[in-house]
Each structure stands twice: as C-alpha cells, then as structure tokens.
Amino acid sequence: MAQKKVIKFFATWCGPCKVYGKTWDKVTPDYKDQVEFVNVNIEKDTTGLAAQYRVKTIPTTVLIREDGSELIKDGRLTKEELVELILS
C-alpha cells in the first residue's frame, strides 16, 4: 500500500504562497511519519507534476490518498484546513 502524499505547488514570487509556506512549515513536521510531503516550485518543476495536476493557480495543494484517489485544493489553506486535508 502506498503512503499518503501531500504536494504543495508554489512560486517564490507569490505572496499568498509565502504566507501559506509558513503554515505548511508549522504543520507538516507533526505528520512527517505518516505522510510524504513534497514541495514543487512551479518555475523549476522538471517532474511535470504541475502539468499532471493541471495547476492553474498557486498555491495549490494536492492530497494523494493510499488508495490513489486525489483531492486538489486551490489557494492558501489555513492551519486547520491543512490538518483536515492531511487527515482526510
């Protein structure tokens, strides 16, 4: 069974991304043993993940559950919204 994964798409020049990055940095260490966290700078994305998930706005957060199902959230999430996403 695959591990749950959460991907954050951002850009260094994006104001909302900077704010969300602080929230992300506070929340993710608490779940690092349960979830794989991935940061993707859309300007340096050589993996093609931004295209794969059709990222049109930033920040965008993608949850990939153990069963392979996905949940995509556009925009900056609050601490509570990010925790809810991680636990869903």
Description:
The chain has helices at residues 15-27, 49-52, 79-87, and strands at residues 4-10, 35-41, 60-64, 70-74. It has 88 residues and is α+β, with helices and mostly antiparallel strands. The protein has a single domain (4-87), classed as Glutaredoxin (3-Layer(aba) Sandwich), CATH 3.40.30.10. A 4-stranded mixed beta sheet has the order 2-1-3-4, with no helix packed on it. β1 (4-10), α1 and β2 form a beta-alpha-beta unit. The chain is globular. The model has no long low-confidence stretch (mean pLDDT 94).
Itemize the secondary structure elements and their pairings.
Layout: E1 4-10, H1 15-27, E2 35-41, H2 49-52, E3 60-64, E4 70-74, H3 79-87
Parallel strand pairs: 1-2
Antiparallel strand pairs: 1-3, 3-4
Q: Keyphrases for this structure?
A:
88 residues; 3 helices; 4 strands; 30% helix
